[in-house]
Amino acid sequence: MIDHVNGVVFAVFIFLFLLVTVLGFAAARWRRADLDSLDEWGLGGRGFGTFIAWFLIGGDIYTAYTFIAVPATLYAGSAVGFFAVPYTIVVYPLIFLFLPRLWSVSHRHGYVTPADFVQGRYDSRGLALVIALTGILATMPYIALQLVGMEVVLQVMGIGTTSDTWFVQHLPLFIAFGVLAAYTYSSGLRAPALIAFVKDALIYLVILVAVFYIPSQIGGWDHIFSTVTDGFADFNATNADAIAAGDAAPKAVMPPQPLQWAYASLALGSALALFMYPHSVTGVLSTRSRSVIRRNAALLPAYSFLLGLLALLGFVAIAAGVKVDNPQQSVPQLFEDQFSPWFAGVAFAAIVIGALVPAAIMSIAAANLWTRNIYKAFINRSATHKQEATQAKLVSLLVKFGALVFVLALSKDFAINLQLLGGVWILQTLPAIVIGLYTRWMHRWALFAGWAVGMAYGTWLAYGVKSPVQDHFGGPLVNFPGTETKVYIAVVAILANLLVAVVLTFVLRALKVDEGVDQTRPQDYHADAGDPGVEEELSPDVPAHA
Amino acid sequence: MSDVPARTGPPSASRWALIYVLLTPAVILPLWVGLYDRVDPTFVGFPFYFWFQFALILVAVALTLPAYLLAQVADRRDRVRHGLPPVPDGTGSDRKAGDER
């Protein structure tokens, strides 16, 4: 099963990987935390300053999505693949505006999860429950994308690809899963926080070498873009019949006019969805003060530049003559072809660690949601700290199993579709969270109904999308109702969600249906570290208070 | 912002308006695909479509920095209006104070 593995590549990869794993376990001892309590395990225990937060939040955003999924779409000639760049530009002004308010109200009231905030703001256990469930569900396909990212790297290294048996074929996936599970289970959020430094150092090194060295070897960007343009034109000419029949998608370097809305809506939908994910919220809430968030909104775009250059490696791979059946292998294969073996090992380690860190953060955040908003709210109200920590650790494992199911059940040819499916779901929590940060006008049951409609409609639309490889969940785009213009499903579903929520709010207010008691005061949305009642550390142990 | 009463505030409200004016292009320009969806003019080999989006990253940073400075001041005024001291007075560092509320 390990036939054509290059010894040097493998040795360097394993060395760096073990180094990181040791760091991960050592993190458990950092500041001698008591990991049996959920506080320490789930949020890192201490406030992170600008610097650590920059790495940690960067680790959330720049993942296997960036190194594997996005370049794969460009390699495959998907005209809208570069949407990840406008997505990561648009997201920062949104972070700048919304998240400081969430930080303040959460630290004032001891909210640890988005569902805590919804519960406090709208006085509705039902609404908080569905927000928590949505967070857990939507996180799974996002973790699945990370698993696929690790898998393709292991495949390109030659592990597990040459066998016929089901288990050995999927061995790279199971290895990735096992490593991820083992180290999150033992050190919680500390592991990804510490490893993020190693990860980012490695990734900067690899990216800088990749985007300057490889294009110069291949003949410069001019040559790369013209090779790709000609190649796509050839493909479209040769496959004109199949394209006309709808059996193949035309390839393009940039979106043709009819796909401009698809491009913009994928960018906007992804940006709005990003900071609804429980892991983004965990990262943001673990910062020391609200200004740390704003400072980061100005600093994080440094990563967007790298993301854009990495995306273009999909084109570089084409110009370099990389031929792979699975487009997601294009970047690892490019590295193996172009780099000396030892540096290929470094690059592979960087990609795998870059998938491992966010996957760990995501599963921890989902576990926090379970423990606080479902287990403690509905199942065992008098749970001890030890019981809570045990629950969180078990659920972080279960979430990873859920991710594994997504990988095995859906096509992984374009793992980005997994993440975009998660985006459809998580975006449906936006009205309750973001609008709730500004106004209490929305009625809690109207928000609930809007959520239900958005989830059902979005899932149904996604189910109906066919692709050449599967009949359902085949892609992120549908025609906007009543038009022939393709847009991201999440945007259609959130519009339906908002429409229902607004109309029902008018109705419920007219009927004077009980709207519950708001625990928060306008002042709470402006509080900062050092104010009375502001918790410096958020602790999942301490229940949210009025 | 719904909880900003109109009567209180030209100072903070106008600062927030300015912040929105600064940040709006950072959201609108990247989504206005028709603006940059073309090949020419190229720049060091990059079609316009690509280099313009890279340039937008720099534009977004350039807009966010002044917005950050403005928000620091606007935040202080918002705090005063909501009955908080302009900067935290440090009485909240004791967690017990939070638990009693």
From TrEMBL, chain A:
UniProt xrefs under InterPro entries:
Na/Glc_symporter_sf (IPR038377), Na/solute_symporter (IPR001734), Sodium:Solute_Symporter (IPR050277)
Membrane-crossing residue ranges in chain numbering: 6-28, 48-68, 74-99, 127-147, 167-186, 193-214, 260-277, 298-322, 342-371, 392-410, 416-438, 445-463, 487-511
Record region (Disordered): 522-546
Q: Which residues form a coiled coil?
A: none
UniProt keyword Membrane, yes or no: yes
Organism's domain of life? Bacteria
User: What keywords sit in the KW lines?
Assistant: Membrane, Transmembrane, Transmembrane helix, Transport
One Pfam family, short name: SSF
Instruction: List the membrane topology term(s).
Output: Multi-pass membrane protein
Q: Where in the cell is it found?
A: Membrane
The keyword Transmembrane is assigned to this record:
yes
| Family of the protein in this entry | Belongs to the sodium:solute symporter (SSF) (TC 2.A.21) family.
Cite the PANTHER family for this sequence.
Answer: MONOCARBOXYLIC ACID PERMEASE (PTHR48086:SF8), SODIUM/PROLINE SYMPORTER-RELATED (PTHR48086)
The name under which this protein is listed is Sodium:solute symporter family protein
Organism for this UniProt entry: Nocardioides conyzicola
Q: What is the lineage of its organism?
A: Bacteria, Bacillati, Actinomycetota, Actinomycetes, Propionibacteriales
TrEMBL record, chain B:
Q: Which domain of life is it from?
A: Bacteria
Its signal peptide is: none
Q: Where is the composition biased (Basic and acidic residues)?
A: 92-101
Pfam families the record matches: DUF3311
Keyword tags: Membrane, Transmembrane, Transmembrane helix
Region labeled Disordered — which residues? 80-101
Q: Which InterPro entries match?
A: DUF3311 (IPR021741)
User: Is the keyword Isomerase assigned to this protein?
Assistant: no
Q: Where are the transmembrane segments?
A: 17-36, 48-71
The entry's protein name is DUF3311 domain-containing protein
- The species this protein belongs to is Nocardioides conyzicola
Starting at the broadest rank, the lineage of the source organism is: Bacteria, Bacillati, Actinomycetota, Actinomycetes, Propionibacteriales
